[in-house]
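Page 37, continued from 36.
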């Protein structure tokens, strides 16, 4: 995969990931404001929390890879 192809791929992955992260954040905030409704409420909250953790992990990986690409781009080519 070329540098530009990988850069585009990371961009294409990061956008929907940001949307998912934002929506999970809103859902968790709303859940936090609701009264605990029992086992089903706690299960939904746990699943949303796990999804948020997965999103954050993926976002970190995308960010790390993007930084690696930027570092390679700025590094002068060896002769």
């Amino acid at each position: 995969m070329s540098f530009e192809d990988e850069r585009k791929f990371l961009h294409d992955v990061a956008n929907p990931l940001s949307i998912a992260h934002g929506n999970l954040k809103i859902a968790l905030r709303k859940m936090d404001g609701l009264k605990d409704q029992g086992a089903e409420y706690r299960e939904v909250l746990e699943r949303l929390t796990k999804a948020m953790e997965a999103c954050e992990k993926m976002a970190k990986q995308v960010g790390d890879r993007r930084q690696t690409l930027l570092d390679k781009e700025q590094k002068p080519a060896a002769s």
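Helices lie at 3-33, 39-74. Flag for discussion at group meeting. DSSP finds two helices and no strands in the chain.
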